[in-house]
Task: structure prediction
Amino acid sequence: MGVEGAFGIAVDSAENAYITGTTNGGFPVTPGAIQSIGSSANAFLTRLNPTGTALVYSTYVGGTQGASALALAIDGSGHAYVAGDTYSSEFPTTVGAFQTANNTDGSYTGFVAELDTNTTLIGTTTTLASNANPQIAGQSVTFSATVGASSGSATPAGNVVFTIDGADVGTVALNAGAATYTTSSLAVGSHTVLATYEGDSSFQQSSDSLTETIQAAPAATPTFSPVGGAYAGPQSVKISDQTAGAAIYYTTNNATPTTNSTLYIGPIPVEATETIQAIATAPGFASSAVASATFTIQEPVVTLAPVSLGFGSQTEGTSSPAQTVTVQNSGNASLSSIAITLSESSASSSVRKISSAETGISSQDYSATTTCGSTLAAGGSCTVSVTFSPTTTGSFPGTLQISDNASGSPQTVPLSGTGTAPVQGDFTVTASPSSAMTTYGSSAQFTINVTATGGPYSSSVSLSASGLPAGATASYSPTSVIPGNGAASSILTIKAAPLIAVKSRNAPLWPFGSSALALLFFTIPRRLRKQWSRRVILALLMLASISAAAVLIGCGGGFALPQPTTNSTITITAANGSDVHTTTVQLTVN
Result:
């Protein structure tokens, strides 16, 4: 580390303090500093306000290669005069200076500089950029310096000095605030490039730097034989390079090759679709660009979706909904010799090829149908639909296997399912229609439906009816039903009782006598009848009516008494042990 310290101090009439010396970097600078970037052992000049609490002006002095300020003087105009020594080849000088370059070949030489510490000049910012970093040796690279004002709208004018590795290589006038320098002579390695805006009467000096990397020219890009493309069978691929003494490194896993990749020593066998990437390296050359070739070996490729089937729990003796596996030929050649097999750990189907005329195959507890034939075109697909039908209870692992001419054959799809014991459900009973009408001596019919709920109902359900009209009979066909997994029905027939008729072969004589007696009532003079009581008159009239009816019976041989209309609520009962359910129907008999 170089010497760091203050070697000169002065105070003006306004009590501003001026300090100069040497610093190792990290020194504070103010806008408008003639040099804002320093390095180890740079001279500095700083002006503090009268209270010593703020910088009025502060800058590095001497470029980036080292300088020491040893003495300081000031005038009444805020100008500072600094003397010291420097070994920098890029120490800034002004037009008309006694000596404008350090001619000591890296040794120290003295300097004296006048600096204006007043801040009336507009500060500037210089930005340096390269159009190619890194760049290949022998190829041109352009450095662009852009100078902007830190305030106001004016554009700085003047010159930009370009320095490479401490040597001035060009002074370029600003054009609309920009200046460029182009070269193609940089040697392989790293170079420090500095662009310094010299400032003018309106704008302060500023600078920027960058490190440009020049690389060796790359080796030639490797080539493949045969070239990448589609081929009907396996290939043997050779890699070569035109750069003398080049070593070739390659990858086949889509990774970018490096000198740590596989070293090429002979032809590469390609038996399936594959991409080969390679680079070449040689002494005095950078690594080549990456060469890449894809070799498509036409072959069928089988993909299955989904990759497994789970049927969960299924009641013994019943079948699950079918689940479908899609067989996709995602390759670029026909899939052939397709054979589909269903197998279980407890029982297995025989292995056989499915022909285009066949659609099904089964094992003990699984069955399948397929749309696949013996071949499947490239890009085509077919399906296999599998159903689980457990013959008993327990777990039934199985396998759907597809054999073919594709790599990785046979392809398999694991199957799983559990057989469970049947669960006795319940049932409901309904009647249709809910009401009917008939006449005495006729019949009415109802359809009685018994439907399983909550699972199959495999027991016999007997049927009965109650609440029938007087004298009516009920019959079921059949008298009991088994709903099973669905519903069962029976026809209920209700026959109403017939009308009641009364007959007599020998009519009694009393009705005729009673009738005659009643008729005598009307032969009695009216004045005498008025003397009878109302009860006597009513009794005689009733006797006459009864006698007339009796006469009719005696004459016709029989008499049917009129019957009233009846409405009955009939209860339908469906029963099996403690499982009893009822419903009702309405029956009207006229």
Q: What stands out?
A: The helical segments are 510-520, 526-529, 534-556. The first strand starts at residue 5 and ends at 11. The chain is about 5% helix and 45% strand. Residues 501-560 form one domain.
